[in-house]
Structure formats: C-alpha cells, structure tokens
Design brief:
- This protein is an alpha+beta fold and about 325 residues long.
- It has a domain at about 110-320: Muramoyl-pentapeptide Carboxypeptidase, domain 2.
- The protein is about 40% helix and about 10% strand.
- The chain contains twelve helices and eight strands.
- A four-stranded antiparallel beta sheet has the order 5-6-8-7.
- Strand 1 and strand 2 (about 55) form a beta hairpin.
- It starts with a helix and ends in an 8-residue tail after the last helix.
Length: about 325
C-alpha cells in the first residue's frame, strides 16, 4: 500500500515538472515571436538589446525628406547612391554651370547670358571699335564706332508706308529688323494708329554729308548733341529707324512724343523687338537729346526686358548691371 502511494507521488511530481517545462518553453517561444513581429528585419526606430544597449535604425532623412534607406551599411557606406550622391551631383552641376565658358547661370537666365555676351566692356577693341558689328545687340555711340567701311550685307526694304516716295538708301534696314518693323506697323494700323517710316539705314558717306552740313549750318556744339560723327551713327547698323506720323506732319521733333502715335509707339514698340533708343533725361548717358521718333531693334526677347527696366542700352549692357 505504501509502495503504491510512493509511486503515485513520483508520477505526480514528474507530470508537474513536465507541465512546468512545457509552460516555460511556450513562454520562450511567444517572447521570441513578439520581438520578430516588432522588428522582423532587424530594422525600426529603436530596439533594446539583451545587453541593455539601444540601437537606432535608419530614421535619418535626406534633404528632400525621403528615407536615406537601408541599414547602416547602405545609408552611410554607399556614398554613390544616397543623399550625399545627390548633393554631390548638384554641386557638380553648379560648378559646371558656373564654369561654362565663364557665363554661369545659363539655363536659369538666358537674358542675363545674352547681356553678358554683349556687354560693353567685352565688345570693343583698343581703338574703340566694336567687335560685334553684325550682332542685333551691337551698341554704337559717341564712344563706340563701327569698323571702317562697315555695311550690312542683308539690307532690304520693309513693306511699310514711308514719308516719301522716291528710292533712297534710307528706305532700307537689315532683314530681321525690317520684318519686325512690318509687324509693328501692322499692329499700329490694327489699333487705328497711322505711322510713317522716315529714315532707316544710313551709309558712312551719307553720314559724312549730314554731319558736315549740320556743323556748317548749326554749329559744332549743337551738332554734337543731335548728330553722330561718321562711323558712330546707329543708323549705319541698319537696326535703327526714325518714325513719325502724318498727324504731326511727319516731322522728327519732340512733338511726336506727345501725339497719340508717339505714345502708342512708346508703349508697344517692345512687343515687336524695338525700344525708344534715346530716352528723355538720359542725354548724359546716351550722348543724345530725347528722340521719341528714333527706335532701335534688339529682338523680341530683350526689348520687353529693356523697356521694363527703364534703362538705356548703355546701362542695360553695362557689366555693372549684369548679374550672373
């Protein structure tokens, strides 16, 4: 009887031990599963290791707010693909842009690039002769002359009404400027404005005659305010023309600027690539008195910007006002 009872007690103890071991094993398995579910790939915000060390995982953001990605090796070891690479590429691009023929900011501001190419300081030689005579942005004035014997090779007669009927060299302009003038006159006509072309291209020889006659009849001081020394007339470029209207008798005087035709021209010329060349109050800069009738073609990309700036062409193409 006692022997049977002892065996029963031992069996109970063994069963209890087995149950306790099973419970412990199940607990261990549940604990391991919980950790894996929290961090199945070994990544996350932070994890407490068995030795008490807290490990942080790939929460760094790139400059654009995206995950840098991967574990410590991919986020810091692979410098060719992460944010550092993007930053490096951007820097390389900036350096390439700034070193591109010394122009810089080309893609960002093409107008500034064009101004830089045509800057006064870089388009004149030691003899004060312009080096870009054929450019639409050439600047000719009392300090800047055209090359000796210069004559444009693309002179044409624009199909616009002139203030005279007979053939004459002053009926001509360079082809691009002439085509733009035709559009300008068409735009004026559509708005009920009647304009007349008065004087376009002027050869060196004709400028000699005009200048000498002005000196003879009006004196040197007056002539220097209103007339160009031969070789330094903007008319010789084939890009300038004097415009008036029958409403003022087709005269080239300041009264044209106060007429509705002159006001229309000042307001709309830039839309067709032209600017009023000699602005009021800018005689010290341009060298000439106010001429509301004298318009100059520089292109439909630059003209609106010039008009908006309020600058003379001398100021607009001065390196001091060109920011790359």
């Amino acid at each position: 009887m006692k022997s049977r009872t002892g065996r029963q007690r031992r069996m109970v103890v063994m069963l209890s031990s087995l149950m306790i071991c099973g419970a412990l094993l199940a607990a261990c398995q549940n604990g391991s599963g919980t950790e894996e579910s929290q961090n199945p790939n070994g990544t996350g915000n932070a994890q407490q290791e068995s030795d008490g060390t807290t490990v942080h995982f790939t929460e760094d953001k790139g400059s654009d707010g995206d995950n840098a990605g991967g574990d410590d090796t991919s986020s810091s070891g692979n410098s060719g693909e992460g944010t550092d690479s993007e930053s490096g590429n951007a820097s390389a691009g900036e350096e390439q842009g700034s070193s591109d023929d010394g122009k810089g900011a080309t893609a960002e501001d093409p107008l500034m690039e064009k101004r830089s190419i045509s800057a006064l300081q870089t388009t004149i030689d030691a003899e004060a002769v312009v080096t870009n005579a054929t450019s639409m942005t050439v600047i000719v004035n009392k300090q800047r002359s055209l090359p000796e014997g210069y004559e444009p090779d693309d002179l044409v007669e624009p199909n616009v009404p002139f203030s005279f009927d007979e053939p004459h060299e002053k009926r001509h302009m360079r082809k691009e400027a002439a085509e733009a003038l035709e559009k300008l006159f068409a735009g004026a006509k559509a708005d009920g404005i009647e304009l007349r072309a008065v004087s376009g291209y002027r050869s060196y020889q004709r400028q000699v005659s005009i200048y000498n006659n002005n000196v003879k009849t009006k004196g040197q001081e007056y002539t220097d305010r209103v007339s160009s020394v031969p070789g330094r007339s903007e008319h010789q470029t084939g890009l300038a023309i004097d415009v008036s209207s029958p409403s003022v008798g087709n005269v080239l005087e300041e009264v044209f600027g106060t007429s509705k035709e002159g006001q229309w021209l000042a307001e709309h010329a830039a839309e067709y690539g032209y600017v009023i060349r000699y602005l009021k109050g800018e005689e010290d800069t341009t060298g000439y008195v106010y001429e509301p009738w004298h318009i100059r073609y520089i292109g439909t990309d630059l003209a609106p910007d010039v008009a908006k700036s309020g600058l003379t062409l001398e100021e607009y193409f001065d390196e001091a006002n060109i920011k790359l």
